[in-house]
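Hi there, hope your week has been kind to you so far. Would you mind checking whether the tokens look sensible for this chain? I owe you a coffee for this, so here goes:
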Amino acid sequence: MYSIEPAALVAAIKTNVSDALAEDIASGDINAALIPEQSTAKATVITRESAVVCGTAWVEEVFAQLDPSVTVNWHVEEGDRVEPNKTLLTLQGNARSLLSAERVVLNFLQLLSATATRAAHFVERVSGTGVTLLDTRKTLPGLRLAQKYAVTCGGAKSHRMGLYDAYLIKENHIAASGGIQQAVALARTMNPTTIVEVEAETLVEFQEALNAGADIVMLDNFSLDETRKAVALAAGQIKIEASGGVNDESLVDIAQTGVDFISMGTLTKDVAAIDLSMRLTVVPSDL
């Protein structure tokens, strides 16, 4: 599974924030310009629903880039579970800066907390089964590392980062390569130390992948009975991942078949933003 490198995450955060600020402010915040330049304010960010907090580093980076003089005080830590009306952070500084940062700050917090919260929900559902939940490449463009990080905050694991760090040989790869045996053999020759995973759509293909020496076989939309048969055929020789059509209703039954992993695109692509609110109060100039 993919391990998120701290240096890569730091670089991604800087890029994410830079892009978001440029997108929102561009040539200048004409709305904030309505406020006297030297006005100061206090702001409080609260959650209106239960959540797993994620995205604190993105918030810190917003002010590092926009206005380092703003004071950020956290009332929670990354990964904390919070209930509605909980204060997440308080801010104090230039009023224009707080207003210019508001939407970018909330966007990162609400998306990444939603991703972490969704992951935590599904992880809790399979607790005790021994299965590991994985994300997929079905992420928001430009925010892949951010969402994959959020998944880990929720207790799930990250699958491969992209098309470059692990093989996942799918139907079209198999057809173009001449078969599962040929595709696996070529992958081993080209990158001997790289994990090779093969997608199987039938038990026949599963057996072919097993015979070819794949490290992992992904069972694509297998029935529960077919999944159990694949687990029995593998007999612990390889790791098995279930994927396709996994939802809240089917998850536990699939986990109880004995598979090692379950991958779920819904961890990242179907998230609904956590409802957050920022309340701002201008500090009188004579104080």
